[in-house]
Amino acid sequence: MFTLWSLVEASLLFLNAVCVLSEERFLSKYGWGMSSQVQGFGEPTSTKAQILLLVRSIRTVAKIPLIFLNIIAIIFKLLLG
């Protein structure tokens, strides 16, 4: 059954997956590494560059809050099953 908790849990798992992605080992194999983002001044950014920037910013900003959210989710799962 689709509930609000399953939506929260799915988004938490997605954020965990984004934070765990290794740019050097995984993303650069498919051309999504740091070296693929070469752009001149004033040029519009591509969709690929915007997604890479989003992944980097999520990894930077969400690391510490994700630790606490994971602890809360684990405790919630242990108590309520």
TrEMBL record:
Keywords: Membrane, Protein transport, Signal, Transmembrane, Transmembrane helix, Transport. PANTHER family: IMMEDIATE EARLY RESPONSE 3-INTERACTING PROTEIN 1. GO terms for biological process: endoplasmic reticulum to Golgi vesicle-mediated transport; protein transport. Belongs to the YOS1 family. Its main location: membrane. Residues 1-22 form the signal peptide. It is found in: Membrane. This is Immediate early response 3-interacting protein 1. It comes from Anopheles atroparvus (European mosquito).
